[in-house]
Amino acid sequence: MQKWQNQAIVLSARKFAERDLLVNVFARGQGLHSGIVKAGQSKTKSSLYQAGNVLEVSWAARLSDQLGNFTAEMVEPIFAKLMNDRNKLQALLSLSAILSNSLAERDEHDDLYDELLQFLQHLCSAENWLKDYANFEVQMLRMLGFGLDLSECAVTGMERGLEFVSPKTGRAVTKQGASGYEHKLFKLPKFMLDGSEASAEEILQALEITGHFLQQNIYNPQHKHMPDERARLLKLITPQ
Length: 240
Prior knowledge:
Strand content: 15-25%
Number of helices: 8
Strand order of the largest sheet: 3-2-1-4-5
CATH superfamily of the largest domain: Recombination protein O, C-terminal domain
Number of domains: 2
Radius of gyration: 20 Å
Helix content: 25-40%
CATH topology of the largest domain: de novo design (two linked rop proteins)
Oligomer: single chain
Shape: elongated
Distance between the termini: 55 Å
């Protein structure tokens, strides 16, 4: 019998057979992991396995490569705390979908798990959280091995005056280094360099950058597209 028990964040749950749920979690020490919840469509259990909820999860299967079964207890009801805020809830669904479609099954990513847990806990109480969302996507790229290089200009080697990002390399470029090619580069928001406050326009610029590199480095090799949940988030936060 194969077993493990650890803290996990629910990413998704859907109906399986007549009464069960097929649940995907992101678990500390286990990474992305799927399992069946017996009688999971009951009101009590279905509320437990809502996206974002932090659970103490036990998994068991006869063999390690089998789907296996989940049982769990609530640690923190993140979904309930966000369900009345449309934008925050969509941010949660966006990250859940991105992680579900980015991570290899059962690859351990404890640094990313901790980053996600911290973001979700902050999201529950924060008013100005969009910059944190953008920063999470930046950190996710880094932790998955596709970090942006904003330390110096890719053309001149200068560390000051960085204003653009190359869509090919993810490296920063100064105005001087970008001369004549500005239209081919991403505008680099200042907060991505120094952590300063960010305008709505700068947040959207940052998400354009991270979305490009998520698609280029993670989804294109798998012949996939960015999840619709992220597009819905962008639509919600884009000024009309």
